[in-house]
Design brief:
Layout lengths: L2 E5 L6 E7 L6 E7 L7 H12 L3 E5 L17 H12 L3 H16 L4 E10 L1 H12 L4 E5 L18 E6 L7 H11 L5 E6 L16 H19 L1
Parallel strand pairs: 3-4, 3-5, 5-6, 6-7, 7-8
Antiparallel strand pairs: 1-2, 2-4
Helix pairs in contact: 3-4
């Protein structure tokens, strides 16, 4: 089942989701939320990783309203980055969040699903996973180096399911003052667990990328695995 197509909640069209099934069922599902580079080779590899841990992985194409099927290379040069930022700037986050909820609902009812669904996002997807924690019915959520979270703290009071956050200490897109605001704003929220990884940059968990850090990624991914097992079965 490499792909499914879902109807957007606003009736504006249909969008694709890359799907990877685990070996055993029933299984919990994880909606994998893309970086600014689309559902590219890295996101598909992450879906394989989630499925290898025993979860149904579902990665919706969030840029479909601008250009369906975007697959950019973060190490492919300036033109790839410029296109990625243009897509991010043109992305309607409210509609994207609705698409994530649509994917969550679909994942709950998939053949082989146990009815429990989490989200896991990276970069832009990390931001959207934070928003999913606040505004969707996901059972749990994982945010890797989410961007702009310091501007979403007013929404944190609405967090429903547990949220696990991975923050890169040297994140060039989330400077120290932003990190301090995020950590202070979420302190005392029993639904949030935040970890800061010393000395690493944004995208430290993107295997093979320029910022890849094996130690930090292994620790973060281990925490993610335990978290997903706890809340998704």
């Amino acid at each position: 089942m490499p792909e499914i197509t879902l109807d957007a909640a606003d009736g504006s069209g249909r969008f694709a989701c890359h799907v990877v099934m685990p070996k055993a069922a029933p299984a919990g599902a994880v909606v994998m939320i893309q970086e600014i580079f689309g559902v590219n080779a890295n996101m598909r590899a992450l879906c394989e990783w989630a499925a290898g841990m025993g979860f149904i992985a579902v990665a919706p194409d969030l840029f479909w309203r601008q250009e369906p099927g975007v697959q950019l290379d973060p190490d492919g040069g300036q033109a790839q980055w410029e296109r990625a930022f243009a897509l991010m700037n043109g992305f309607d986050q409210d509609k994207g969040l609705a698409d994530i909820q649509t994917a969550i609902t679909a994942a709950r009812g998939m053949q082989g699903a146990n009815g429990k669904v989490g989200t896991m996002g990276f970069c832009l997807g990390g931001r959207m996973a934070f928003k999913a924690a606040c505004h969707t019915d996901a059972d749990c959520n994982v945010s890797y180096y989410g961007v702009g979270l310091e501007n979403l703290l007013d929404e944190a009071k609405a967090i429903r399911g547990p949220l696990l956050m991975h923050i890169a200490e040297k994140d060039k897109f989330v400077p120290p003052e932003a990190q301090a605001r995020i950590l202070a704003g979420l302190s005392g929220n029993t639904k949030v667990t935040a970890h800061v990884y010393p000395g690493v940059d944004h995208a430290f968990a993107r295997m093979g990328g320029h910022a890849w850090d094996a130690r930090a990624a292994t620790i973060a991914n281990g925490r993610t695995a335990e978290f997903l097992v706890e809340y998704l079965g």
